[in-house]
Amino acid sequence: MSPTLKIAAGSLLVGLIVLGLKLMAWWMTGSVALLSDALESTVNLATAFAALVAIRIAARPADANHPFGHHKAEFFSAVLEGVMIIVAALFILRAAWDGFQSPRALDAPIEGLLVNGLATVLNAVWAAVLVRQGGRLKSPALVADGRHLWADVVTSAGVAVGVLLALATGWWVLDPLLAALVALNILWSGSRVVKQSLSGLMDEAVPDATLAEIRHVIATEAGGAVEAHDLRTRHAGSATFVEFHLVVPGEMSVFDAHEICDRVEAAIGRAVPETRVTIHVEPEHKSKHSGIVVLD
User: Fold this and answer.
1) Beta bridge partners of 292
2) Where is the Cation efflux protein cytoplasmic domain (predicted)?
3) For the chain, which domains are there?
4) Does the pLDDT value for residue 72 go beyond 70?
5) What is the spatial distance between Cα 179 and Cα 257, in angstroms, rounded to a whole number?
6) Which of 245 and 180 is assigned the larger pLDDT?
7) Which position among 25, 92, 242, 290 has the lowest Cβ density within 10 Å, counted as fewest Cβ atoms?
8) Average pLDDT over residues 172-176
9) Are the C-beta atoms of residues 227 and 295 closer than 8 Å to each other?
10) How far apart are CA 13 and CA 156, in angstroms?
11) Helix (H) or strand (E) holding 277
12) Smallest Cα–Cα separation from 185: which of 213, 207, 212, 161?
């Protein structure tokens, strides 16, 4: 099993433990805010499962029907997770509205907060693992899952503040009020996840820093060529696709041109791991004098 799959499977286990703790906290207190927090965690389980399935699909090698691989499956999962975050926020808003209608004192609030706090700490640690490892492994599904858990951590913190304020003041309406405010923050978080995932589905170019690195590699490693132009990039899951035209002297042999291409391709692969490079070789009269100038 790949490291990405192991982490995704771990999310399912963590999600089950956290959901159990939060349901226990709600059962102990009767807090609508803690119930909302538990509802949000049920979405964590669903999205962790979706991420696991997507990562398994994305790991499949290219085939006749998918010659560029299955990398974009992770983006579909990330979009689903963003939508599920928004759905969770709507559930919380509904539960908060019910709490506004009939606020009530809580049972065993301190004990419930301690149990919920344990779940929050576990979520925070695992969210950090997902975001860090997802970035290292170039897995948008893991990163989206980590951001989803961070939204859950923010929810839990807001809920704890609301319950403590309600306990200190006797204003039990603060319990649903804080739940509603945190739900708005979750809506914003979910919209960001959807937006970033859609950029991958729309073949958005790599970040400017990565593009600059690729241009630098071409300029310094393509010795013997004249220039490179029409550079295009896109990313799909852990894979980065790079295409450009490489202009070489007209009298250069096919063997020598191929040697340059191999050298550039290997250098780009070292600078940007898991890169698929496509180079179209052209004779010197095709120069556009507007692309990447190859340094001697």
Assistant:
1) 228
2) 207-284
3) 3-201 (1.20.1510.10), 208-293 (3.30.70.1350)
4) no
5) 64
6) 245
7) 290
8) 80
9) no
10) 19
11) strand 275-283
12) 161
Tokens of 151: 């939204």
The sign one gets for the Cα dihedral 275, 281, 284, 290 is negative
In three-state secondary structure terms, 61 is: coil
Q: Are 130 and 143 in contact (CB under 8 A)?
A: yes
Q: Tens of pLDDT along 199-242?
A: 666 677 888 899 999 999 999 999 999 999 989 998 776 678 99
Contacts of 54 (CB under 8 A, 6+ apart): 73, 74, 76, 77, 78, 141
Length of the chain: 296
Q: How far is 99 from 92, CA to CA, in rounded Å?
A: 10
Of the two residues 181 and 284, the one the predictor is more confident about is: 284
Structure tokens at 226: 């004249």
Structure tokens at 254: 């096919």
- State the Cα–Cα distance between residues 40 and 4, nearest whole angstrom: 24
In this prediction, residue 121 carries a pLDDT of: 92
Q: What are phi and psi of 222, to 5 degrees?
A: -95, 35
Per-residue pLDDT tens over the stretch 182-195: 777 777 767 776 77
Coil, helix or strand at residue 230: strand
Single-letter residue type at 78:
A
For residue 4, give the H/E element and its range. Answer: helix 3-29
Confidence category of residue 256, pLDDT binned at 50, 70, 90: very high
**Terminal-to-terminal C-alpha distance of the chain:** 45
DSSP state of 105: P
Quick check: 84 and 147 in contact, CB under 8 A? no
Residue 46 predicted with pLDDT over 70: no
Percentages (nearest 5) of helix, strand, coil residues in the chain: 70, 10, 20
Sheet holding 292-293, edge to edge: 275-283, 239-248, 227-236, 292-293
